[in-house]
Fold each of these.
Amino acid sequence: MSADDGVRVLAEKFASEGAAEYLGEPVTQAAHMLQAAMLAEREHAEGALIAAALLHDVGHFAVTMTGHELMSGTDTRHGEAGAAWLAPWFGPEVTEPVRLHVAAKRYLCAVEPDYLAALSPASVYTLGVQGGPMQGPELAEFEAHPYASAAIRVRRWDDQAKEPEVEPPPFSHFEPVLRALAR
Ligand code: FE
C-alpha cells in the first residue's frame, strides 16, 4: 500500500472506530487523538511528534483487546500493536514514541509524584494492568532509549487530551503532516 493509501486508511479508521468511547474518558477515541495532535502542534513540535501524538492510540483501533488480556496485565500491547501497525508507512521517529507511550506513563509515575497524582481515574486504573510504576533497572533502560524523551512528550499531550469542551481540528488538518512523513 502506498503512503496515500495509508493516510486514507487512517482517515477511515478515525471516522469509524474513532467514534467509540475512549475507555472511561469523556471524549471519543478520535477526539482524544486529535486533541493530542493539536497540543503537539501548539507547542510547535516537529512533524514526526505531531504524527505520533495523532496516532498514539491506533493500537486501540487495530486490535481488539479481550477482557482476559486486560486482566492478565498486558495492556502495554496497545503501544506495541499500534507501532507495528504503522510500521509499513512510518519510520521510528513516529512509531517509537507510539510504541513507548505506555512505558513513558509508567516511567513518569515512578519519577514524578505529581504526575501520578494528576492522572485521570481511568488512567490510574489502567496503570495497574500496565504493570504499575517502573522500578529498578527498568528506569535506566527506559532513559537510555533514543526515543525516550519523544515518548514522554507524546505522553504528556496524551494525558491532557481528554477535554470534552475542546473541539480539535478535523483529521484532514493533519493529513499534510502525515503525507510528508509517510513512505
Ligand atoms: Fe491516549
Amino acid sequence: MTQIIDGKKISAEIKDELKEQVAAYREQGIEICLAVIQVGDDPASSVYVRNKKKACEYIGIKSLSYELPARTTEEELLSLVEQLNGRADVNGILVQLPLPEQIDEEKVLNAISPLKDVDGFHPMNVGALCIGKKGFVSCTPAGVIQLLKRSGISISGRECVVVGRSNIVGKPMALLLLRENGTVTVAHSRTEDLKAVTRRADILVVAVGRPQMITEEYVKEGAVVIDVGIHRDENNKLCGDVEYARVAPHCSAITPVPGGVGPMTIAMLMKNCVESVEIQKASFVERAE
Ligand code: NDP
C-alpha cells in the first residue's frame, strides 16, 4: 500500500511545536519579530504574504508589515532593508518575490543581513549549507527533509535523485540530502536519458516546474516520490510536476498536490524565524560582517 505523506498534518505538528518554543522564549522575555516587505500588489504575492502573517499570528511571532507601492525604487527598498538590518527588535526580514522590474532582486536579497535572512537565500547561508555550518536553510527543501524524517523514511545510504537545479529548490535540496548521507544525483534540462537516471532513485524529488511531467516510466517500483511542483491544470485544479494518479500505485510513499510539500514551506519559514534567536548568536556570520 502506498503511504500518502500528509504535509498538512506534519506542518501543523511543526507549527504547534514552534508555538510552544515561542511561548518559552516569551517567558524569558524574548519576543520574535518578522518583517515582511511586499512591493506592489501582485495577487499571488498578497496571498502568500497574508498566509505568512497568519502563521506568525498562530505561533506567536510578531509580524511587521511593509506594503510598498509598485513604483518603489531600488534605493528606497535597499534603504528600508538597511534600516531593518539595524533594528535589534527585528529577527527576520522577508522580501516577497517577485519584485517589480526596476528593482534588482539579487541586489536586494544580498542586502538582507545573513543573520536575518529567514528565506535562506543569501550567499552566506547557501555557503554555510554547502560546508555544513549553521545558518538559515531555504524553506521548501528544508520542508522536504522534515516530510521524509517525520514519515519514517530513512535517507542515509539511499539513492536520491533531485530533478531540478534551481538556487531555491534543486541545489539546496541536493545539499540537504547529502547532509543526511544520501547518495545524491542532480538531474536537469541537459540530463541525457532522464528516465534512466530517475529510475535509479529510492527517493525521487521532483522540482522541474513542468505540470505532470513525471509519469510512472520515470519511477522505480517502490520508490519514494516527493513532488515540489505547483501548477493549475486546464480545469484550474492544483497539480504537481508528477502525474499523481499514474505514479502513486508504484510508490512506497508519495506527496500529493495540494497537501504535500506546499504547506511545509511556511512552516519552515516559521521554524527559521524561531531559530533566528540562536543563529543571531552564532559566530560564523559575525566574523564575516
Ligand atoms: P525553476 O524553473 O527555477 O527550475 C526548474 C529546474 O528544472 C531547472 O533546473 C531546469 O533545468 C529543470 N528542468 C526544466 N525542464 C526540464 C526537463 N524537461 N528535464 C529535466 N529538468 C528540467 O523552478 P523552481 O525550482 O523554482 O520550482 C520548481 C517547481 O517547484 C515549480 O513548479 C514551482 O512552482 C514549485 N515550487 C513550489 C514551492 C512550494 O512551496 N511547494 C516553492 C518553490 C517552488 P535547467 O537548470 O537546465 O534549466
